[in-house]
Amino acid sequence: MSLSPTHRTINTIWRIESAKLIAGLTRMVRDVGIAEDLAQDALVIALERWPEGGIPDNPGAWLMTTAKRRAIDNIRRAKLRDQKYIEIAHSMDLYTEDDINQVLDGEISDDLLRLIFMTCHPVLSQDARVALTLRLLCGLSTEEIARSFLAAESTIAQRIVRAKRTLNAEKVPFEIPAGEELKDRLSAVLEVIYLLFNEGYSATSGAQWIRPLLCQEALRLGRVLAEIAPQESEVHGLVALMEIQSSRLKTRVNSKGEPVLLMDQNRAQWDHLLIRRGLAALERSRKLGRPLGPYSLQAAISACHAQAPSADETDWIRISALYEALSRVSPSPIVELNRAVAISMAFGPAYGLQIIDELNAEPALQGYHLLPSVRGDFLLKLGRQDEACMEFKRAAAMTRNEREQAFLLKRAAECKTEPL
Q: Of the CATH numbers 3.30.9.10, 1.25.40.10, 3.30.70.920, 3.90.180.10, which one belongs to the domain with range 315-420?
């Protein structure tokens, strides 16, 4: 059954506001599990009321006020029997409209960074941190997260529940740490911000290929972190990467919302202010005198694209060398997949196909739609249309993003008309 326009709008608002809402509520109740429940309750009430009464002018503020009222109602129904709820009740006077706007526009944004540091606490495993991030900050469903982990939905659901319980049981503070504690948690925080950005840059599922607001929020958080930890080269490297990648957002889709590949984008429409900011951040990373880490190397790769006057003038040999360096610093099948693309552009599709065929047996890439998509592109360039068509169809069956699926099916159909 298709959703009504109002319900689709509410879903969009929720995807935009949910992370900020949960972060703000976590600051108040100091329990991320309770905060998520309160946010979900507010969403249910919105789904009941907004279709009849209309969507409020400030839906984020409405959701925040409703969630806070819900918390106070729960306290009253429980007759204040739980001391924790008593403390919450004493600290939770309802906002005026001006207060809400101030929180939504200002302080609550810092709450997102606090929430990231909280969910990146070492009491949680890496898998738990990633799952919780995708759930709370990216707004992905348990089913979508399970697909990205190639795991059962029940396993991911249990992982998320256990993570929230652990944070509560260990009384992990809702704060940005300082000194050595900040350094110890920095790598995990950078990973989370990177995940947030990537979900905005190429959405896992849904009707839109990009979610620019997620990219903007991740970039803002990265900039704040660079102020907090100015001597950490990889913070500047990640900021550089996000600045340069963000410069292309407007050209990643056409007027119909369809994907546009990097080589087909109008470079005149790239945001050159963001490119300059990204190059400056990359230079700050280099000036700290440490070997380039994975984020700085990826930023250097993005800089190669940003500085090329045209797609044909891209220095693919340098990009191939940078991917080789990245594979040594941070080896992964995804890096190898990207290296294959660079090799194919520098030396021909046959060389790239060799690498791809070796990756076919990689367990981590089973079910990953970009593997057959890239293979299909190489095959098409080699004049093997029928095989390319099958690979594009296979990739389309794997992705859960509607725009990307349509794009891949279109490429499959075009294989039949491509000249030899």
A: 1.25.40.10
